[in-house]
Amino acid sequence: MTQIRLVGLVAWLVAQDLARAVSPGDAPQLPVTGARIVEVITEAQLQSAMGNLRHGDTLLLADGAYNLTGSLYVNGRHNVTIRGTRGSTNVVLAGKGMDNPNHGGVPVGIWSNSTNTTIAHLTIRDTWDNEIIFNSGAQSPRVYCVRLLDAGSQFIKSNPTDVTAGVGVNNGVVEYCVFEYTASPPADHGSGVGYFNGISAHAARNWVIRGNLFRNLHNPDTAAYLWNPAVLFWRNSSNTVTEQNIFINVDRAVAYGLDNSTPYRDHAGGVIRNNFVYLAPGLMSAGRRAGSDGLLIAWNSPGTQIDHNSLLLNGNALYAIEFRFPTTTNGAARNNLADAPIRLRDNAVAILSTNLQTATAGMFVNPAAGDLHLRPSATNAIDRAATLGNVTNDFDGHRRPRGGGHDIGADEFTTNAPPRVTQLQLSASNCLVTFTTLLGLSYDVQRAGEITGNAWSLVAADLPGTGGIVQAVDTNGTAEPRRFYRVTLSP
Ligand SMILES: [Ca+2]
Ligand SMILES: [Ca+2]
Description:
Elements lengths: L4 E4 L6 H5 L16 E5 L2 H9 L5 E5 L2 E4 L4 E3 L6 E3 L7 E4 L15 E3 L5 E10 L4 E3 L7 E10 L4 E3 L14 E3 L2 E3 L18 E4 L5 E3 L2 E3 L13 E6 L2 E2 L2 E3 L2 E3 L3 E5 L10 E2 L2 E3 L2 E3 L7 H5 L3 E6 L5 E3 L2 E3 L6 E6 L6 E4 L2 E2 L3 E4 L4 E4 L10 E3 L4 E4 L46 E7 L2 E7 L5 E7 L8 E8 L4 E6 L7 E8 L2
The protein binds calcium ion (2 copies).
């Protein structure tokens, strides 16, 4: 028999760790693709590259600070990417200050009226107006792993071509970004103090807003705007998906529609699911609270589904979720976990089911940090939800259900008890991997020729846990001189 050495690796990587390798501002690197890769090191080179922009260009910015001398206009050039290499903090595009009216030709960060504009792996900050704006002609923009700080108005704005006809920028994707005021929101730029949103889109269809962090998008009581949504899709928008985001200390998290005085539905369809919303105690004054509506709202938005969100509002708002206006029909709010009720206002119609509206801070892992994962003690939420066909995963991207049933709220609870490899043995040409399991969970067995690197491949997927030990067989497992194994919870 061939001389072989086999090493069993005790698995401590649970599925949650694997999934949260993706986080706002720190997502996996996009591959560098493009018809032409234009490498840029200085701001002057960046402006030159913009001036000579061709269809299909990828501007790859070297790490560093770029103090903009002009906004970056993607004007009639399709399939253009403006990006850093990785992460979101190594490349910084800076305006001249969000409250500096002498913006010096840098009113916005990046402007596009073109199709398939991608912005990735960088920071944009301190612009007088929008940090990113899409205008008529733009379609399918992608904003990926971008940090947007201290915007003088909307951080991302998507303008319409024809609101009444519902023509605007469609199919946008905003993933793993950070939207934040590092101190206070903007002063009066002409529209009153505190005029901002995280994302404001008009006549926009089929956008996905996923895995982002919205933090401190909060105006003081003295501002002209007390209820700015962090995510706002309106003016004849439809089918927006907002999922797996974290909202911390925002005045309003998500609004699908606002206005019912319109000849069209302000929004239609769409889902808001698997989001965390946290407001710190005392964020809102008593007077402010008395005039509050909800953190997740569907106003003049028929057919909107608001499911499996977790909200800890700490008395800052009267309602967690609100449907409003008679045109808001056929809605649903199901399996949400909140410490405030759900409201049907002005004859809105929605199915409300299996919502737990008595959430407490003690149910969550680290609420002050916006971490509303369930603690094991949250037994009135764990395994207590009804099954929804349209929500198949959770905040972490983990498949639902785990354990004995679906959990109420955005997190499907996963035990922290990892599987443990108890034995590794040879049987003819097979390797047998034996490990501990829990009932109701499922496990993946992976192998690699080396521990370092990411060359793990699946031996077996979705092996059901029994509560006892389970054995996986790696056929022809003796084919290499050595082989490592690990066992994880299935994603
Ligand atoms: Ca469960
Ligand atoms: Ca989870």
